[in-house]
Amino acid sequence: MKLPFICYALGALTLACAATLASAQVSTPEVSVHTGKTGYQVYQQVCAACHTDGVASAPKHGDKKAWAPLIEEGQHILTAHAWVGVRAMPAQGGMPDLGLEEFAKAVAWMASSAGGDWKDPDAALMHRIRHEAAERLEKDIKAKKAMKKMLERD
Length: 154
Description:
The chain contains six helices and no strands. By secondary structure, it is an all-alpha fold. The protein has one domain: Cytochrome c-like domain (Cytochrome Bc1 Complex, Chain D, domain 2). The longest helix has 31 residues, at 123-153. The chain starts with a helix and ends with a helix.
């Protein structure tokens, strides 16, 4: 069965990213006064651990071909799905204290670096991102509850 291998692989990926983040020395540009860290700063401090080298098939920074289908999803969809966790990417990029606004700026910065015409999200876009993330989480919660019921039947 493939499940033990998948669990092992995800565990190894998490440890690899954590080790990279723990040892990273980062220089960052000026912090935005109004909204915390810039997208570039968040990328350097969090995202670069996987997106620089394409760990677990993460789209590499600046790779227009890899980012094109993701950019086509739309800024609110991609940002929301990535924030709650998608494919091998852990929720919030593996940083539980990373807020959605800063995360959204990092996604916008990466997409823009790969050819997308994305800007830091304004209040209206943040509303759409939150709504999409809530819907995605609700689906995940329902799926987990269904799995739990299966366990209770056995």
